[in-house]
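Discrete fold record:
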Amino acid sequence: CETCSQEEAKYRCPRCMKYSCSLLCVKKHKLLQSCNGIRDKTAFVSVNEFTDLNLLSDYRFLEDVGRTADAAARHPIVHSPSTKKFLYGLRNRARKCNIDLRTMPVGFTKRRENSTTYNAVEKKFYWHLKLVFPHCHAEYVLKGVPDDKILADILKPYIDPVESDPVVCQRLKMYTMSPQSDVQILMKIENRKQNSVRYYELDASRSLIDNLKGKVIIEYPTLFVVLKTLKNDMVVLGQ
């Protein structure tokens, strides 16, 4: 027994492979090693050590994944009339604004994240928006951004030397120290081949809705804020 070192071992932990002699030692080893005792189904096994048992384990793991996916597809919320009605209404409203809004199946990350809504009284979208600052490896998620808000005003809390949050300003120092004329807002063009990625250049002086018109949006807009002198691999449409 690797816990008490006194009795002959009878059990082996599926998680960390330590030997134990009794239930008491099993519990003690879990406490000392912070081990949950559950076998790691995705742990790496080298080719030399790979056996039929590992193959069977992988096969059962894939079966579990298949059952889970099937159960998710059968979940009532997937076929909920209210959910379908909401998404249909959202896409229809976007179409009237000349925006090709596309939604993903339930279960996809972007579908779960998306918090975009449409206010019928104000006749206005409140967008879920993601800002990516690739040169600083930073991402920020904004919720409830009104569609009539100017892009420059959306970016002010992040890259404006005066109005930005001190912590954010420090992280995005490369942007705040650069002249505003060097900042460029891009959005990836959807439905292009993997080897032909292109970006739209957005106008910071215009509203969010004006910049989205005539474009395909999958779930919500993702804007890339770049510096013209550094965007080596991000090709703007037409260049």
Summary: The chain has a mean pLDDT of 85. Residues 83-227 form a domain with the Ubiquitin-like (UB roll) fold (CATH 3.10.20.90). The two ends are 69 Å apart (CA to CA). The chain has two domains: 11-73, 83-227.
